Amino acid sequence: MDTKFASPKTLLDQIVVRAPQAATGQSIAQRFGALEFVSPPEVIHALLLRIHERLEPAEEEELRAWRNLCLTCTFVFEKLSSPDEAYWRAVNLREQVVTDFESLARDVSQRVFELVGYRNLMKTTHNRELNNKDLAAAWKQHVIQCESKFSDKVTENFVDTAMKVYNRLFVACPDSLHIIMEDAKMNGKASPFNQMSALEQITMKCKTPENVLWVMRSIMDYMHNMPDEFGAQNFTFRQLKGAQGSVGYIQLFLTKKEIMEHFLTNVLSKFPRDEFKDFVKGNLTSHQGFRSFCGSEQEAVDLSWQGEHSDAEIQSVQFLKIVVFSKALDGHLKTVLKGTTNIEDVMMSQKVADIVTELMLKLEAEINPGAVKSSALVPDDDCEETKVSLESLVDSDLLEDEDKARDLQEHFKAVQEYVGRFITFRVAEQSVLKTQQALEGTVLKKFPVRGKHWCIWYDTKVQGESSAQPHCRCPPYQKATFKKHVQAALAVRDQSELGEQTLVMCMDGFRSLEGQFSKDLQQPSGDPMVKNRTTFQVAYDEKALRTRKMLTRGMVSQVEGLHVYSSEGLSLQDRDRMTYHGSTHGSLIGPVIVAPFKEGFLLSRESKEKFLGDDGKILAGGACPSQTPVPDLGDKVPVTYYSLPTVFYSEMIHSFELGGVYDSTCMDVSFALACLKSKTPYVGSCLSEFACQALEAEVIRICWKEFLTPESPLYDINLHKLVEDVNVKAPKGKSGRGGKGGKNGRSGKSGRGGQGGKSGADDTAEEGAGEGGKGGKGGQSGADSKSGRGKGGKSKGTTEADIMGLLNSLSVWREGTKKINAKQADLAALREKTQNQRKAVQALEEEVETLKRRKARQLRVGSCCSGLSAELLALETLGVWFVSCLGCEIEPKVLSLNQAMHGHCHVFRDCCTEEFLASPGCDLFVAGFPCQPFSKAGCNRGILDPRGVVIFWILRWLWLHKPACFVLENVGNFAQQHKETLSMIMNILTAMQIYHVEWKVLENSTVGWLPQHRERIFICGVLKVHWSQPFDWPGDVAMLPLRAFFKEDREHREHLGIDSLNNTEKKNVQKAVATIREQGWKAEDHDYVCDISGSVPHSMWGVSPCLTVTRAGSSGHWLSWLGRKMTTSEILSLQGISLERVGDYSNHMSERQLRRAAGNAVPVPLLSRVLKMPCVMSGCQVPDEVASALGRINAEITAERELQHQLALQEASLLSQKVSLLEEIRKAEDKALNAVKQFTGDSAVQVPFTGYGAVQDAEMKPGFSEVEHELLQAALVGSALTAAKGVFLHICTYVCADDGTYGAVIAL
Prior knowledge:
By secondary structure, the protein is α/β, with parallel strands linked by helices. The protein has an eight-stranded mixed β-sheet with strand order 4-15-14-5-7-9-8-10, with helices on both faces. The longest helix is centred in the last third of the chain and has 57 residues, at 1184-1240. Keywords: Coiled coil, Methyltransferase, S-adenosyl-L-methionine, Transferase. Residues 730-799 are annotated as: Disordered. Residues 820-861, 1211-1238 form a coiled coil. Belongs to the class I-like SAM-binding methyltransferase superfamily. C5-methyltransferase family. Pfam families: DNA_methylase.
């Protein structure tokens, strides 16, 4: 109506009327009752409705024009001999109108009744029964059917289906027609019920009218109450039916109906109040009734009625809301339905069962108060293993002295408080909700307290105990338990995904379970979590394993997988492991030496049963691979047969930088003790209350011992004095378990003494005494040293002259340092030059800003499908003074970041709404309408895709608001494979008669400076009142060098290198490198960028392939010369966007989502060149002075980038020289150390090299010869610990000085 009758114009359509056979000329006017309307009446109805709207506001002249229009309509009277002839004439006239107005096309239900009407007509007029085949043939013979996306062609199959739908749906269930008509009012031709195949599926799968109405009302309910997530496009034939291997919405909705019926029969019946049961059955079992009482996200209602009901009754209503009338569990239910459709099985599935269990427990608590057990840790007075007291830790003699007993009691309380500060045990509950509630009061919510990460630890070996032969077989993996603990721990922190600080660490029990772990890391909705897996290998000592399993033959599995999941790639600080060999960047951890069972945590058999609780025994099927004897430990048994040493868990805390641990499989105290020693908060989930009590008591017992152990970090010297009642000496240094024997003597067993400890808490503490075995390594400098009887020897054949000559070999260190100093001076000068360049750029930017505000008028800008609003970034580079009037973006996280970056005056979520059409106008409008429907990389379905029609809403907005100029953007393929759609858009814009419009496809790498292949079509329009010259499209420019956008970085290579790729990407890298080699080049020496994420790799030299949303989200492409993929900053820079301009995005989206948003953007420099053209034409041109200043800025930025590139190359060269020099120093170190040993005997000990160092020369000490002093210098450089004249020299650390020198700081 708005288009055809916007103004009173001549009605060109002829109105066909059927006249009686006998009517001629003037007699027609006298046969009004015999005339029959044949043309589609909607055209006349639209005309009359428009006139009715204009009667009030229209002027006299306009009303006369409407009157003339009505008086000048052309009527054509036709004599149609039979009703069927009139029928076919009416059908064909409608088909003709549909070619101009698709909204007049018959929808599916209208077409069905049209076919039924003709069949009935033939029966009444000709007494002829038409079968489906004859009906289809008659239609084909008489109707010239037009092409329309809103109506299907009438074929024999269509007629067959239409008759089934009519009989089984419209006749058997008349109310279904009312639902279809109601939905058509809301969604028009886009209604999900305007699909014959969809209606057929509903009739086939819904066996009863009740089921039909339930499914149709469920679809309506989803679209009305969750419009942001569900529309007609979500209920297509395929989605209703379910693709191969998946569950469709019809089956899902029918299952929800069964769940509700099961709930009413088996759950609601247990509620005592009949009034509540009647209320639920009468009001909350239909969609309309439930929404009227409980509301939805779109519509709030009065909930005061809930005050009349108990908590359990309200929770039962919540069950209906969560499971039946929302999408919260849709993913979970679809997963369950893949395996079973039995409603009992569905009700027993984890998430549904969790809610029902929680509901029944609350109901039981209301009916029988006190019947539900509390989960508080109540001590078991009948079991000594759950109690710990001071009397059980010290001799009774010590408690006879009242003062000493009081002091000991204070210390015992201090130990309990210390354990309580860091260690918490909780009972593992049955459901996610109850587990979450149990964890709510713990410190888990504040993780990580210190450190970089916190972890959810899950060890499949100790998730319970195997029901058969637990000493030699692991319990089966329990995926429900794993998912419960992960989801509950994250829910406590208000997370549904893994955060940046969260690690999920899984031990697979010598089984390859990584695929299962990855699958089971799911959100509560059932959707998979965004995750990245890094696998480590834990290597066990073979002898220790054989001792545990008491094996005499056969193979022993020594390597277990540790799978670490994080939201992004795992980033760890590169440092040495605390206990085991290697560094934290190695994938092997070990060798882990496990203790014999007799040294572990032991319980009586009765206590073990209590410890495991009701769910601790896990059924294990199949035969055990090897029968091994049960370890004989008397009346005791290990609490777990798969405990790990405390040092292993200490290594986990150190290597993974943990600041908090949630141990979801807590079966012993080793992990808790490791956390206690490192002061890391720990929450352990136990199998029973008894287990919590027993573990807490055991931790206190061991902690008491640690307070009395001098080597422990928890050592308390005052407590030690109280307990031992002796003059306790200060603890030794970290190196001191064994004393060192006589020089060059034979080795014996080491004694208890060490090399001497630091001063203790007591001022009278002495150095630790060494006590060695005979002829062994006795202590040398202790207060009570008993050195061994081995004969010490002085150097043989080594003279002072030899050592002096050896020291000269260290000249490589001195010469290398001089060269590096010179290089660093050049580097400092280059850095200063770069900083000056940056200052010059900033000064020019300030000048541009001043010129903008002084000379340019403010431009009002609007955008649709805004993304990161590249158009505003482009205008910033042009120096245009603007204000963003409106922005529209359907992705909420992208919209949030966009608003933070630009601050739009008005923000909209969806452009396909009347609200957006009513938005304010602007001078410049830019829209990058969805490219997926038109892209080769997308579905390429064009306007048949629901997203493809967005362009028509944009065109409506342009017609309503008429901005001075506009730019529409999409992929280059739009002009190649969708020419008809392009032609349609151009025709619509031309028909507006107010714009001059042109389009062109531009290639980013040739027009937009940036080295990225990216073709884009731009459709530009300028109001004809402003247009005075042809469009001046931007021409080719020199592309910036590819390497200017990337730099060498070791950390980037580690996180984005070959190890970070999946198997397909690794294979594609190999293929790409091989292809480049076949062409005669070396990939690592040339600037090749390889797209390795597809099935076939694609490489380009000197330019990057297109960064699509998918490719950008997976860290871009492979850089051959750097051996890695792209960083987020580099991906943004290839789109002309700086990470600094984006700002802090962490509060809006993840890093991966930012990369995807960047992949969806238009290259900023390219867009700036395109925008300048319509801006100039529409009077919003860039001032000359601003343009000049911008040109100088571009020149300065180019120079700055070149300087930064030189700086990066020189820094890489400097690093290479440092590494080479370090190798030379190591060689000299070995020589110096050997000389020191020969000169001083065996008392020189190698200390591991720990890094670079700054030299601090040792001063000449009294009694030292010059040669000895030079020898100290050699030890200084050579990383040695030596003794001379009874004075110990300790090389404390290595650091790197600013002047590039190397060495160590020593302590005398």
